[in-house]
Specification:
Elements: E1 2-3, E2 16-19, E3 25-32, E4 38-42, H1 43-50, H2 70-79
Antiparallel strand pairs: 1-2, 2-3, 3-4
Length: 80
Amino acid sequence: MGSGLNGSTAVGRPREWLAMPGGRIRPVVSVPGDDGTTELLPYDVWLARLRPTCRCGRPRLGSGRTCGSAECIAKLRAST
């Protein structure tokens, strides 16, 4: 695992890379756990954790209040 270039990498882009078998590399993010261990997450999974979530747990669409599923929209209408 290595780090990106000397700070010239734009914010929001992965700066850690994991070497995979066959010479491929994969962008990852180190996430410290509550118990002191560090977990490596794929970059896209880490980004998904940052997005606001719907009541069902899926990411919200755009600036909306739901994920867009019919069930979640119906629950939103019922609660207003």
